[in-house]
Amino acid sequence: MIRDKIVLITGGSKGIGLGIAETLLSEGMKVAITGRNIQSLEEARAYLISRYPEGHLLIIKADVCQKEQMEKTVHDIHQTWGEIHTVIANAGVGHFSSVEDLTDAQWHDTINTNLTGVYYTIKTSLEDLKATKGYLITIASLAGTNFFASASAYNASKFGLVGFTQAVMLDLRKYGIKVTTIMPGSVTSYFNGHTPAPEDEWKIQPEDIGQMVRDLLFMHPRTLPSKIEVRPTLPPK
Ligand SMILES: NC(=O)c1ccc[n+]([C@@H]2O[C@H](COP(=O)([O-])OP(=O)(O)OC[C@H]3O[C@@H](n4cnc5c(N)ncnc54)[C@H](OP(=O)(O)O)[C@@H]3O)[C@@H](O)[C@H]2O)c1
């Protein structure tokens, strides 16, 4: 059902995006991943093509904060494969400090990436999703419903993203487009300068989010899980 369909994953060079890319490649999809750092993209490419067909992978250097770069991303995918069926708006950043210490640059980076970046991702791929009756999934966070100290910018971006995605879902379902926001708790990744370590075993793993995305894509067209909270089963006490 999803074999040979085309998926765009923003921020697919590491962490959750890479986990989703691997799962969808294993299902036979054609996967385009983006990121700002070409070296990270090349490393992801080397890893993925050692396991999956090279012709099913496209790496594209693109910043979600730059609309023209997202337009070019969609154009490049058209030139290589055709219209996009699935969009995973995953790219995101976090800056964590008290609002007293938060800088203007950190505020704008968070909102531009996590909120405006998703808006650009959707605006540039919308005609494809209409044509393919496709699927849009945004990766929000439990920080989109739970607020905590030192997270004012991140909370603002993810609360905004949850609201934005749910309104988009209502706008687009009349076209047969499915829209879901996934709101994970702690996931093992490189987020906020972290390096994955054995102590992260209790966390959700990127491939678990990949499995969730695959299950959503396989769900019957009449049924739409529009907002999904997901958390580690056994967090440390
Ligand atoms: N890890 C968690 O515990 C957790 C929990 C809930 C939600 N999330 C969300 O999950 C998403 C993925 O995060 P992650 O944990 O996988 O972090 P990660 O390991 O740091 O990966 C982030 C990815 O996004 C890319 N990226 C960042 N800014 C970008 C931009 N402006 N344009 C294009 N790509 C960009 C990064 O590549 P470049 O740096 O090369 O651009 C990288 O590929 C984020 O939206 C995050 O908020 C994470």
**Which ions, cofactors or small ligands are bound in this entry?**
NADP nicotinamide-adenine-dinucleotide phosphate
The whole-number mean of residue pLDDT values reads 98
- What's the helix count? 6
| Low-confidence regions | none
The fraction of residues assigned to DSSP E strands is 5-15%
Largest sheet: 7 strands, parallel
Distance between the termini: 42 Å
What is the number of domains?
A: 1
- Looking at the structure, the CATH topology is Rossmann fold
Strand order of the largest sheet: 3-2-1-4-5-6-7
Count of extended strands: 7
The CATH class turns out to be Alpha Beta
CATH architecture descriptor text: 3-Layer(aba) Sandwich
Structural class by helix and strand composition: alpha/beta
List the secondary-structure elements in sequence, H or E. EHEHEHEHEHEHE
Shape: globular
Radius of gyration: 17 Å
Helix content: 40-55%
How does this model look, in words?
It is a single chain. By secondary structure, the protein is an alpha/beta fold. The chain has one domain (6-230): Rossmann fold (3-Layer(aba) Sandwich), CATH 3.40.50. It contains 6 helices and 7 strands, in the order βαβαβαβαβαβαβ. The chain has helices at residues 15-26, 38-49, 67-80, 104-132, 152-172, 206-218; strands at residues 6-9, 30-35, 57-61, 86-89, 135-139, 178-184, 227-230. Strands 3-2-1-4-5-6-7 form a 7-stranded parallel β-sheet, with helices on both faces. Strand 5 (135-139), helix 5 and strand 6 form a beta-alpha-beta unit. The longest helix has 29 residues, at 104-132. The relative contact order is 0.15. The structure holds NADP nicotinamide-adenine-dinucleotide phosphate. The site of NADP nicotinamide-adenine-dinucleotide phosphate (NAP) has 30 residues, from helix 1, strand 2 and helix 4.
